[in-house]
Amino acid sequence: MSKPQETAVYTHGHHESVLRSHTSRTVANSAAYLAGSLKPHMKILDIGCGPGTITADLAALVPDGHVTGVDHAPGILEQARATAAGRGLTNVDFAVADVHALDYPDDTFCVVHAHQVLQHVGDPVQALREMRRVTKPGGFIAARDGDYAAMTWYPAVPGLDDWLELYRRVARANGGEPDAGRRLRSWALTAGLTDITATSGTWTYSTAEERAWWGGLWADRTVASSYAGLAVAGGHATTEQLEAIAAAWREWAGQEDGWFAVLHGEILCRK
Ligand SMILES: C[S@@+](CC[C@H](N)C(=O)[O-])C[C@H]1O[C@@H](n2cnc3c(N)ncnc32)[C@H](O)[C@@H]1O
Predict the structure, then answer these.
(1) From CA 31, how far away is CA 29, in angstroms rounded?
(2) Bridge partners for 71 per DSSP
(3) HEC string for the chain
(4) Residue with the nearest Cα to atom 20 of ligand 1?
(5) Ligand 1 centre and the CA of 153: distance in Å?
(6) The pLDDT value given to residue 6
(7) pLDDT for 236-253, tens place per residue?
(8) Up-side HSE of residue 105: CA atoms within 13 Å toward CB?
(9) Can you give the pLDDT at residue 7?
(10) Beta bridge partners of 70
């Protein structure tokens, strides 16, 4: 096991407005780049599993194998366990772990996966080295992260430019890298990985229902999640500025011609 490292502060936390987004995630909408490489017997480690909806999907795809979901935050694992139990899955377990120093022997897992995690950690290259270490020879290291600077939308609502600028500033002050998607391949090369397939994937929100959901959860996150508290405590924004950004999200969501695209970088590496 490698030496533990000081990690970044996780910007979003696990407020209900954040979990509204995390619990909507599936292998189909968040790990399609990996799905084709899965075999029923595989042993998978899902790092930063959060509430565990992707973890549970992975477990269903490896009925003769096993999935371990780990997260740095102990509190969210109860929800992850309930998600798996609710689906009747018996080939999945959960534990607390820090991606920088995993408590597993070398060459343990067929697949080591992390969705929207490397953007939040203090040392993503060390994280990828650890992910590689616990992967079996011939196995896969898979990571997918959003890229905030590449997010784009219509129509131009000025308060959303303020949202993007503020979010990126707060995430960096917490030790993360909000524009992680474009950097994944570079981080993997620095970590010593050589067989890397780099792709991209998107989420798009345009119907009235999608806009209400995406705009509503970001409006609520902006005033009520850990991110709101960290933005104010760090002197990055006032409560009034956060309320103005939340109003901008609701204004965008109310636009009939509204459209929002979230770009993600993806890497699928063979050890
Ligand atoms: C954006 S959430 C993603 C959750 C899940 N993978 C998904 O996509 O729905 C990031 C998760 O990574 C966890 N996390 C942050 N830093 C971590 C670290 N150093 N080691 C392990 N998990 C970490 C957070 O607690 C959080 O649950």
Answers:
(1) 6
(2) 96
(3) CCCCCCCCCCCCCCCHHHHHHHCCCCHHHHCHHHHCCCCCCCEEEEECCCCCHHHHHHHHHCCCCEEEEEECCHHHHHHHHHHHHHCCCCCEEEEECECCECCCCCCCEEEEEEECCHHHCCCHHHHHHHHHHCEEEEEEEEEEEEEHHHCEEECCCHHHHHHHHHHHHHHHHCCCCCECHHHHHHHHHHCCCCEEEEEEEEEEECCHHHHHHHHHHHHHHHHHCHHHHHHHHCCCCCHHHHHHHHHHHHHHHCCCCCEEEEEEEEEEEEC
(4) 98
(5) 26
(6) 47
(7) 989 999 999 999 999 999
(8) 2
(9) 58
(10) 47, 95
Question: Could you tell me which residues come within 8 angstroms of residue 269 by beta carbon, excluding any fewer than 6 positions away?
Answer: 132, 140, 141, 142, 188, 193, 195, 196, 197
Cβ-proximal residues to 92 (8 Å cutoff; 6+ apart), any chain: 55, 56, 59, 66, 67, 68, 69, 84
Tokens of 213: 């959901």
The residue contributing the CA closest to ligand 1 atom 16 is: 121
- Ligand 1 pocket member 266 (CB < 6 A): no
- Please give the biggest Cα pair distance in the chain: 53
Mean pLDDT by runs of 10 across the 271 residues of the chain is 55 77 92 98 98 98 98 95 97 98 98 98 98 98 98 96 95 95 98 98 98 95 87 91 96 98 98 98
Q: How far is the CA of 154 from the centre of ligand 1 (A)?
A: 29
